[in-house]
Amino acid sequence: MKKVKVLFLCTGNSARSQMAEAFLRHYGNEQYEAYSAGVEPHGINPFTEMVMDEIGISMEGQYSKDLIEYLGKEHFSYLITVCSNAEERCPSTFPGVSNRLSWLFEDPAAVDGPDELKLDKFRQVRDQVETKIKEWLADQQQGESGR
Question: Which of 57, 21, 29 is nearest to 138 (CA)?
Fold first, then answer.
């Protein structure tokens, strides 16, 4: 069976897209191949790794990647943008992409203040991303069983 390749795109590939990649790897079983990239990669935010570790989701092997690594070189069943900046800056024509989706989440790295406030925002966004991944996977399964 051919795997469904999914690319999550964000601005810095430091938080939201990394979380989505890790959750899809965790919940997607053998049916999915998860990737992430950024239009301006900044490296993975330490808070991202911290909040994912809290719930036992591994980010092993993940690193911040530039969209250029994949543009026209890989075929993806889905390109999912997880922030409005990436949505605006991603080329409207992306060779090798079958479906394009937009799941916009707040940028947890944009929060100013003490670390505890930042961590709270990272946890909130993590939970939103997890819920969205689970809902999307359930929709995908329903679509396949309805064929």
Answer: 29
